Amino acid sequence: MLTRPRSLAFLMSTSLMSASLLTGSLLTGCAVGPDYSSPETVLSPRFLGQDDVEEREVQSVANLQAWWAAFDDPMLAQFVMRALEQNLDIAQAATRVTQARASLHHADAALLPAANVSAYGAEVYQSLETPLGQVLAATPGFDRRGSAFEANLGASWEMDVFGGLRRGREAARAEYVASEAGTVATRLAVAAQTADVYVMIRGLQARITIAEQQAETRRELLDTIRFQYEKGIAAELQVNQAEGALAQVEAQIPVLEAGLTSAMNALDVLLGVQPGTYRAEVSQVAPIPIAPGLAETGTPAEMIRRRPDLIVAEQRLVATNARIGMAVSEYYPKFSLGALLGSATTVSGSNLFSSDTHQAQGVLGLRWRLFDFGRVEAQIAAARGQDAEALAAYRLAVLRATEEVENAFSALVRREAQVDILARGESSLARARENSLAAYESGVVSLIEVLNADANLLQISDTKAQAQTNTARAAIASFRALGGGWDASHAAGEDLYGSLSTPR
User: What per-residue confidence (pLDDT) applies to 355?
Assistant: First the structure.
């Protein structure tokens, strides 16, 4: 049988008024609310430091997809690959993709009819001591024992006439794409952090080696002065000066070793293992990796399309734009269809599917927040506010990304220039130290001259090692700022860019 709701007359009149809109919406798939369009971003055609970076003299050139291989350090590349496989931040990001995918499936399912099967069987034995039992006992033919059996197949479908559910699916899809891009962003960050920590380790090892060499040189000088003091040639003051200078150099070594230990521990954590696991592999001293050149720097506009964190920011903007449509759809009525087909009896299970026990029901439903428009308007205002916030966040992310590129380019070029200057100065101070030592041994100058020459040589050698480290780190920062570390051109035709400009 067909059961009509009490408000069927009102429902029919409303349905007639909305018939054309209903049909058109179902056929064309239109949805209320604003359609998404990518925000306009005014950017210069080239980065300010792009010319300087492209004119660098380099030993090797890196492509953005696997830039770590161009440092010509197999161990660096090996650690980066291990981190991409083992890092726990990446594992967390992957689970967020799974959650977002589940939300997208839920939003897809909301557009489809839902069906359910229900069945039950019951045996009842009524007590005669209860008020109900006493009343029923006085009824002719009353049987204390009873049974009931029922089996039903039900179906329901909310017709997405005005697109609220489709806007919800659009938002869910944007969140899913954002989660995928977020995973890529995490992978890029982990790769850059791993390479950065590795370079820091090599830089600290170089500085420790320089300090130990200087300490050994000053020990030899101290032995010479002590021998001269014992022979009555040198004064006790010179011995004290040499001892103090040696202590000054030796005091730097524990501080550098503590920093080296922390860097090694940080590397292990990036690799997703207990600190100390890979220490033996990286403990052997190796040169500081040399910063490669960039095969392609691209343009600011290309950087926007390549950086996954900017994809995340834009997809969040897509989602907030879709949620405006979800809020606007609450202005309009919601239509639903329901159906029930089943069988019920109180006789016995064997008669459950006989013709007399069949039952059917069909329902056309309407839900309309007709007197709740104040809350609807508040929801729309809140959705528009969230969209404006997401737009500002996206534009700020673009500006900061451009700033990161410019800062990294500037640091790379300036640090390389610093290394060249320090290399020339180190060569000159090394010759000056040799000359001062020869002059001291000849009695021409005092020990102070030798100690000053030692101090100057130590300082410039240590500064040069830091500059070399910072140059390599600036190159890593440049690759990271440009969005290097993944095949963005391949992903451009896949899910990551699937809904950047056209809502689905």
Answer: 66
CA 480 to chain centre: 13
β-pairing, 358-367 vs 145-159, is: unpaired
Look at the alpha carbons of 360, 366, 367, 370 in this order and tell me if their dihedral is positive or negative.
negative
pLDDT greater at residue 465 or residue 131: 465
pTM for the predicted model, two decimal places:
0.81
CA dist., res. 182 & res. 485, Å (int)? 14
Tens of pLDDT, residues 340-395: 887 877 765 456 666 677 788 888 888 888 888 889 999 999 999 999 999 999 99
Where are the strands (E) in 349-477, listed by range? Answer: 358-367
What's the pLDDT tens digit per position in 409-418?
999 999 999 9
Neighbours of 385 (CB within 10 A): 12
Cross-strand pairs, 362:
339
Kindly state the helix (H) or strand (E) to which residue 275 belongs, with its residue range.
Answer: none
Q: What percent of the chain has pLDDT over 70?
A: 89
Cα separation, 412 vs 307, whole angstroms? 20
Tell me the percentage of the chain whose pLDDT exceeds 90: 45
3 state SS of 149: strand
Give how far Cα 159 sits from Cα of 5, 107, 426, Å.
18, 14, 78
In contact, 429 and 453? CB cutoff 8 Å? yes
Based on its alpha-carbon atoms, the radius of gyration of the chain, rounded to whole angstroms, reads: 38
Distance CA 61, CA 58 (A): 7
